[in-house]
């Protein structure tokens, strides 16, 4: 399993000290991903749609595209913003009613539009490019002069379906694959991972809803567990898988049954063995079976 900065931070929450700066970066990232997942649901509901999620290109500078969608005549670039609150669009800036200013939110969209045109020219792909910034949070509103050729507001999301019409999916699939082959991830290279000692981390089951560490043992025969912090009902298997993934991330190496039981609040080895055989790879190191992804 390839770890990344944000997965490590999420896995460390509640297990050791994390700096306020890392927590803030994580919360901002998490908010952004929540918005992207909402848009991903829209795209997945459209039949025969060829799209790329999170394309990263490295050149003299780095470029990251939230979504690229290939249709018969147009390639769409969508940048997703999960801002919430009341804003005014003024002189290219977004100004919140509490005074907070987001400078030039369209700058990255324009920059990516330019580089995407250059990439398509180099690949001899003849498609017009249309770029949109999508404010996807239903609790976001904006007043001021709004360019409807560039900006899509939460109450206009149905516009996306009208834009994305396909009939020549084989060609669109080829374009998608060609662009995907250029993907060169860079996002994680700029983060400094927090220092921690694995053996000093607090083990325990992670609630997948509120991120609280559940200290109490899971009852072996209960398939649904109620979190004592958020009171959500969560499938027991989901909790175990989440915790095993965190064990894998934080150890940075394959783990054994003893470690799995310690981190999963003493869940019976037969249960863990069944889950790990289904979702992890297994190798033998000496006389010990270890698991990894």
**Rg, please?**
23 Å
Model regions low in confidence, pLDDT < 50 over at least 5 residues: none
The number of helices is: 8
> How many domains comprise the coordinates?
2
Q: What is the averaged pLDDT score? A: 92
Strand order of the largest sheet: 1-2-3-7-9
Task: State the order of secondary-structure elements, H for helix, E for strand.
Answer: HHEEEEEEHEEEHHEEEEHEHHEE
Query: Shape, please?
Result: globular
* Structural class by helix and strand composition: alpha+beta
Distance between the termini: 5 Å
Protein name: NERD domain-containing protein
Pfam families: NERD (PF08378)
Domain NERD: 31-139
Question: Keywords for this structure?
Answer:
293 residues; alpha+beta; Arc Repressor Mutant, subunit A; 2 domains; five-stranded mixed beta sheet; 8 helices; 16 strands; 34% helix
Topology readout:
Layout: H1 5-12, H2 20-44, E1 50-58, E2 62-70, E3 74-81, E4 85-90, E5 93-96, E6 101-102, H3 107-122, E7 128-135, E8 140-144, E9 151-152, H4 158-163, H5 169-180, E10 205-206, E11 213-214, E12 224-226, E13 233-235, H6 236-251, E14 255-256, H7 257-263, H8 269-279, E15 281-285, E16 288-292
Parallel strand pairs: 3-7, 4-8, 7-9
Antiparallel strand pairs: 1-2, 2-3, 4-5, 5-6, 10-11, 12-13, 14-16, 15-16
Helix pairs in contact: 1-6
